[in-house]
Design goal:
The protein contains 14 helices and 20 strands. By secondary structure, the chain is of the alpha/beta class. Among the domains are: 101 residues, Succinate dehydrogenase/fumarate reductase flavoprotein, catalytic domain (Flavocytochrome C3, Chain A, domain 1); 107 residues, Up-down Bundle (Methane Monooxygenase Hydroxylase, Chain G, domain 1). It binds flavin-adenine dinucleotide (FAD).
């Protein structure tokens, strides 16, 4: 079957791109699970846009650049902040019910934003509202949607991406779909880590498929760890939004001691990487596996109204957060890196586009400003569709990076292949919140051996594991190379930023 647009992924990036693209041709959405299984639906805080009376795109840009620790692409970030208001209007037009107060849009404030500029929907249920609004519209439109269809590889014709090979994850049958423009919107790789806020579908497939196809991949060492994920025995990891700390919650240890003031003068409102490392240090010193987030100082009705999803989720698992502190620990949360694109979503492979969390246009640099990621997905998904209209046949491309490096070919070895928990444990322990040369070196060796030991994948778990191992290698190799600390990447042996490292690490598979 041939379509004008093949869009891989049905989170906000894929759905929004598809809803725009349907105006210009036939659209096929391929998605690995059910349409709504993705990271988008779990987003809580909201989406950033400088729409408040005292705000401006310039202020938003300043905050974005400051958070990114020297690696933000200023052209891309300027586009991000200046196109934000228009994209919010599009989302509202597509049915996203943003919250309002007295007829004006309600704006929350989050860490490292100098203004209140976070739009939300249903309090802390922003992502669920976005996902459901867009997916119901997509279902009602002419868009063809194939669920449980995993994109495995890109097929080339005359040197350009021309089709995708897929696997039906229920029947294990293969099919190829041809497209004029192929758009990867396959989300992040949070499943690399033992503790993660990400959906089970976040296995880095977009990065892995693109890397194997010869596209450049950038900034893979920058993984944002969220400091506060719910830590209850037997309960799936669940994000406790930053906004809870924004409302004055304190972080305390098992003895009730508040520890953040001794790490940073902003205490609980320090940036995510600082808070995550502080908790990591506390846990390493005490041997405990959790600290506590205490919001019991607020009136119960305020807590349940401001954080309905968190309140309900905890209550369902036997914890009343209006009465007891919330047990939390850090968790892998967001991948700043991904498939390298220009500001039109073009990759280094002709005909292949990427947007959303699997892409990297360097608007986040080394550290994402909270709530900029949902914004990035829509700003650059729109530009992908615009570009396909300008380009005669959707075959644009971005210049290749002269200094790009390739992963070494893994040699034959005796190591047995890993399972996913083994991989996640290795990444958590050795390529995690605090990094050091020796563990990183061991991790790169183990990952390379595992890559060569993996049998050719034949089903969804096999493909996901192979993709995770590849993403793990890209992350670990970049983390080992980057001999400094910057943004979310922290090296105990190089605790400061170094000017010579104010550059991106780019991988390209030239094989
Ligand atoms: C718990 C949580 C809270 C967050 N809160 C916020 C927030 O408040 N504000 C903010 O800005 N950001 C937030 N983020 C980040 C933000 O939600 C994501 O960056 C964003 O939703 C990514 O959108 P996406 O469309 O790129 O990817 P996703 O929404 O993850 O969608 C990826 C899609 O690709 C599909 N897919 C994957 N592999 C394949 C394959 N091989 N073949 C076919 N389909 C495939 C998946 O099934 C899925 O449909 C949060 C993230 C999490 C996990």
């Amino acid at each position: 079957m041939r379509y004008d647009y093949i869009i891989a992924g049905s989170g906000i990036a894929g759905l929004y791109a598809a809803l725009l693209a349907r105006e210009h041709g036939s659209v096929l959405i391929l998605t690995k699970g059910s349409i709504d299984e993705c990271n988008t639906r779990y987003a809580q805080g909201g989406i950033a846009a400088a729409v408040g009376p005292d705000d401006s795109p310039e202020l938003h840009l300043r905050d974005t650049i400051a958070a990114g620790a020297g690696l933000v692409d200023e052209e891309a970030a300027s586009i991000l902040v200046s196109e934000a208001a228009e994209r919010i209007r599009d989302l509202a037009r597509f049915g996203v019910p943003f919250d309002s107060v007295d007829g004006a849009v309600a704006l929350g404030r989050e860490g490292a934003h100098s203004q209140a500029r976070i739009l939300h929907a249903g309090g802390d249920a922003t992502g669920a509202h976005i996902e459901l609004s867009l997916s119901s519209l997509a279902r009602m439109s002419q868009i063809t949607i194939k669920e449980f269809c995993q994109v495995e590889e890109i097929v080339f014709e005359d040197g350009a991406a021309a089709a995708v090979e897929t696997l039906d994850t229920r029947t294990n049958t293969r099919e190829t779909f041809e497209g004029r423009a192929i758009v990867l919107a396959m989300g992040g790789c949070g499943q690399l880590y033992r503790v993660s806020t990400n959906s089970e579908v976040a296995t880095g497939d977009g990065v892995a498929v693109a890397y194997r196809a010869g596209a450049e991949v950038m900034d893979m060492e920058f993984i944002q760890f969220h400091p506060t994920a719910l830590r209850l025995p037997g309960v799936p990891v669940f994000l406790i939004s930053e906004a809870v700390r924004g409302e004055g919650a304190s972080l305390i240890d098992a003895d009730g001691r508040r520890f953040m003031p001794s790490y940073d003068e902003r205490a609980e409102l320090a940036s995510r990487d600082i808070v995550a490392r502080a908790i990591h240090t506390e846990l390493a010193a005490s041997g405990a596996d959790r600290v506590y987030l205490d919001i019991t100082h607020l009136p119960p009705e305020k807590v349940s109204a401001r954080f309905p999803q968190i309140y309900r989720y905890c209550l369902e698992h036997g914890l009343d957060i209006t009465k007891e502190p919330i047990p939390v620990s850090p968790a892998a949360h967001y991948a700043m890196g991904g498939v390298r694109t220009n500001v039109w979503g073009e990759t280094t492979v002709p005909g292949l586009y990427a947007c959303g969390e699997c892409a990297c246009v360097a608007v986040h640099g080394a550290n994402r400003l909270a709530s900029n990621s949902l914004l990035e997905t829509v700003v650059f998904a729109r530009r992908v569709v615009e570009r396909t209209l300008e380009e005669e046949n959707g075959r644009g491309t971005v210049d290749r990076t002269p200094s790009a490096i390739a992963l070494s070919q893994p040699g034959p070895g005796e190591t047995p292949p890993p399972d996913r928990p083994e991989l996640q444990a290795l990444m958590w322990e050795q390529v995690g919140i605090v990094r050091d040369e020796q563990p990183l070196r061991q991790a790169t060796v183990a990952l390379s051996a595992w890559q060569s030991a993996l049998p050719p994948p034949s089903d969804r778990p096999g493909h996901e594991l192979a993709n995770l191992v590849l993403c793990g290698r890209l992350t670990a190799e970049a983390a080992l190379l980057r001999e400094e600390s910057r943004g979310a990447h922290y090296r105990r042996d190089f605790p400061e930023p170094r000017e010579e490292w104010r550059r991106h690490i780019v991988f390209r598979n030239d094989a």
